[in-house]
Amino acid sequence: MTGQRYDYHGIVEEEGKSLAVEHWQEHIRTLLVDTRLVSIGRALNLMIIAFSPGGDLGDESVRLHVQCPMRFRHRDSLLIGSGDLAFERPETGEKRYDTRAAEFNSVLKGEVVRVEDVRHGPAGSLSVECSGGLFIEVFPATLRHVEAWRVLRVGDEHFGYPPDLI
């Protein structure tokens, strides 16, 4: 977005007016809440979670891109996580993440999973609460000043962490 500046101290400026970080976080919440989770995948080490604002499986116009540790959790059970990118199946060479993502996507085709809430935590952590007890949890884990994650609407605005890199 042009004309914007994000500050680590919690101030956002947009064409001369200041907005609190809570306002910036509310944009992220507005983009995700009530969308349907439609698929998960990756491009190299970039994990891509796609959502549909209207609920159509063919519409993946809202996305969460993650380049830091993350996981999908169902209640107390881990389903898939960024650590699965490091493991290959010896017999096929396929990444465990890809196998689990394909299984998860098969479930998503038959089950409607909607985003119910989005919570921002310390140091850029993000928790996306979905129906049925599913959580997407993102937690930046480096002191390097690099992009950890971003939420976007394809062809429109992007929001992420750290905000001054988006």
UniProtKB/TrEMBL annotation:
Protein name (Swiss-Prot/TrEMBL): Uncharacterized protein
Taxonomic source organism: Frankia nepalensis
Lineage, top ranks: Bacteria, Bacillati, Actinomycetota, Actinomycetes, Frankiales
